[in-house]
Specification:
The complex is a heterodimer of chains A (about 450) and B (about 475). Chain A is of the alpha+beta class and about 450 residues long. Chain A has 16 helices and 12 strands. Chain B is globular and about 65 Å long. Classes of the chains: A alpha+beta (about 450), B alpha+beta (about 475).
Chain lengths: ~450, ~475
Amino acid sequence: MTGPAAVALPTVPPRTETNTTAVLLPAPSYPVEKTSLANGLRVVLAPDRTAPVVAVAVHYDVGFRSEPEGRTGFAHLFEHLMFQGSENVGKAEHAKYVQAAGGIFNGSTHPDHTDYYELLPSGGLERALFLEADRMRAPRITRENLDNQIAVVQEEIRVNVLNRPYGGFPWITLPPVAFDTFPNAHNGYGDFHELEAASLDDAADFFDKYYAPGNAVLTVVGDFDVDDALRLVHRYFDDIPARPVPVRPSFAEPVRAEERRSVLTDPLAPRPALAVGYRVPDPLADLPTFLAYDVLTHVLSAGDASRLERRLVQKDRSVIGVSTYLGTFGDPFDQRDPLLLTLEARHPAESTPDAVLAAVDEELDRVATDGLQPGELARIQARIASGLLREADDALGRALALATFELHRGRPELINELPAVVGAVTAESVRAAAAGLRSQGRSVLELRAGAAS
Amino acid sequence: MSAATIGKASGDAPGAGASPSVIPPVATTVAAELPTVAERTLPGGLRVLVVRRTTVPLVEVRLRIPFTGLGAAHQARGELLAETLFTGTQLRDRVELATVVQSLGGALSTWVDADRLAIVGSALATNLVPLLDLIAEVLTGATYPSGEFAGERDRLVEEATIAHSQPALIAREGLLRRLYGDHPYGSETPVPDVVSQVTEADVRTLHAARVSPVGAVLTLVGDVEPQAALERVEAVLGDWRGTAADAVPPLPALRTGPVVIINRPGAVQTNIRIGGPAVDRHHPAYAAQRLASTIFGGYFSSRLVSNIREDKGYTYSPRSSLDYPVAGSRFTVTADVATDVTGPALLEIFYELGRMALLPVSDEELDAARQYAIGTLALSTATGVGLASTLSALAGAGIGVGYLHDHPAALAKVTARDVLEISAQVFAPTRLVTVLVGDAEKIAAEVGAITEIAPEVVAPGTVTTAADKATASEAAAT
């Protein structure tokens, strides 16, 4: 050891943090330009000449909350179908054209949107725009390809849910405890029988209704000249006819006052688990208040210094691991209201869910009553800011963030402003967030271990 | 087959002046300049690489320390060492260490495998100095406090129990054990019973012996001044000393043999794993092997995906991959398929492997794979995270930054004949071993119809090597 040996650090007596001054956090300053085409397509361009790569993303403002009853899993199945060919692109050719340009691609289906994206060496920009425009104009879906992709999606569900312990826990199994309406409560992966019932007419209806250019955002990030890129965007997207844009329904549900509990047995799980869902404020209505809940998830479970790591893992030893996060898939910014703060823990057979819950309540009460410790807010803000910078350093990560900010708020430039908003979160608002979790009726899902040894 | 073009736009055929219907060609991408690497080797043997990258005010840290050891006990001790490395030093306890890391805008994680111990993380670039100080404090002064150790060990036992219930892990462990037996590469995840035997004294002893600068590489990429960073590393780690890790023992010779079925009654899928030896990064056929694997199953446009996913719908994400551990490289095929198509899926995989081994790939396939390999190398080094991880992995194999230019040049020269030659050597089904995890009662008959299967179906965690197979059979018979 090169430093001094065995020096006791001075201990600071705990006191409530009263500092309300905003912390100055490093923020990016990516140039962001916006336009829209005559057909309603919104276009976000963020040039960055520092690396010879380009990201192209198309976000459609429809996710699995919008799929019709009787067709669970359809939004995701349709995402698969969008890779099966279009007017000028044959089956399997989308992948070939992107990958033979040195690029990668994928698509993903979320509660409120579906995205399609490519990341390529910058010489592939025009090709990626062509491919996205071609399938926005008209995907080409055959009965054979539909049947093929139903089978592929069923294998996706088997590998991620049915054939493994903790499959779909809790993203599929907690929503029916937390919510009452079909859009919020149903399984976004879908029921096998409903997937098998999907028809070409269903696909045509879904495309017509939700994949209008006015319901989409095109985002281009990376190594290009803005005028050149804009010329290409017009060239490929201008002639896609405008179609009516669906009015997005409200998916609002009241926040319950009383707790609701449910139990499931996972026949493959060797240890029990617990998931708790709490409602959080509408992220679009009040971003600073929402961000206090994001900070709270870090206070609770980010790293060995967090409250629940110390209490449940280090002191009580009542859990094997614990995490808390916002949104169905852990991205606080890709979902509209209503959404959950989820606490997830796997625990040894010896510890009971009630004991874990009681300790969680105590820790939330401690935050709600005593507020944060000195330095606790500042270090978490520093960590969140550096995480945002790291995600945005990747052209694709930047494109996905810009796109959801445009889709939900019409403000892609939020990517540059977010660190300042995080820096302005106060200890008082985090305290209030903890109190907000305690004052509502939480949703508790216990997973019993069906394969306990 | 009737093709229904959906969407209202389909009725209006694009007329003259409408959007072009020809796939645009790909423009030439000017490759990024080779990063400048500042380098220094400290007296204790630690190699330090620093790259200045100013596009984001962060610094990425990758430290890899050779960590080979023999036996399940070493493996379990290594896991516990990695899990408890940051639970205390003479200066700070676990919570204080975590508090410091977070206040630097940082995150650090530690992991271990059969070749190395790694510390991976990042922080705001302005905090490089305190981050290095903290890492040095842990490397040279971790205390493994008793109060933390027992809890972490018990927790790791539970984590190992959960890990060994995952079919993907059961399958991977099964394949590695089948390929490598008792060699350190024969397992990646320790079993609970062995973890529970580890004491804090074991871990302290292991730290003293193996957390050593000899052969270690520290890579820093970010908005930092390289010479100042090298000075700071030398200031805090210049006195660090240790002994060399054991050399990795040579891999056992490949023993081919019948398909092994690990029984998982009631499984709705079969996890197919096929593997065998591959050539390493220094071999003349390395670039050709990379393209061969890409064409076979290394990307979505591959033959494997086209066949068993996009044509037949047997599986969601079939793939092949190449791994380059120190003692010898490995080719692996992975596919999780519906139980009732296990036989047909295996038949198609063997067919595609055989086709690679016997027949040349087309020029179109070769060029697509080539562009993909060149392009994705550029993509993977376009971020601080990717550049740091790439340079660290290369340095671990004794390869410098010049690879970022040399490898694309080597890829550009690969011919279809090169691909056929290496495929005949690496992909031939007769030189690969196969492990299946699934419902033996449902799959054994149809798998047995196309290939020989091992006489005894085994339970998870009990795959034996071909070498001790005879003994196992005798035991099963008695």
